[in-house]
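Bug report (template v2)

What were you trying to do?
Predict the complex of my protein with zinc ion.

What happened?
Run completed; filing so the output is reviewed.

Input:
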Amino acid sequence: MIYYTTKYNTIDSEKMGRRKRKIIRITKKQLPKVFSCPQCGMFSIRVLLDVESESKIVCGSCGLKWKKENTSKKPEAIDVYNTFVDEFVSGRG
Ligand SMILES: [Zn+2]
């Protein structure tokens, strides 16, 4: 779940050396995940998980909305997003 921490730590120690840059901005309750929108191309897609047993996707740029019943108890944002893109693309032919 919090694998971001190790990821950033690795980058930090490799590139920053002794300089400590506070780039770690992790909110523990909800991980801010932003994806690119297949409709408008902006990085403004937000994945809202576990909202009444369904996941929602909202684009903050063009207003695109999509929702789907959760297929697992702990859906991953990236999985929901992938499913969304899949359906979006196939729906548009
Ligand atoms: Zn959009």
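What did the reviewer find?
The first strand starts at residue 34 and ends at 35. The pocket of zinc ion is lined by residues 37, 39-40, 42, 44, 59, 61-62, 64 (CB under 6 Å).
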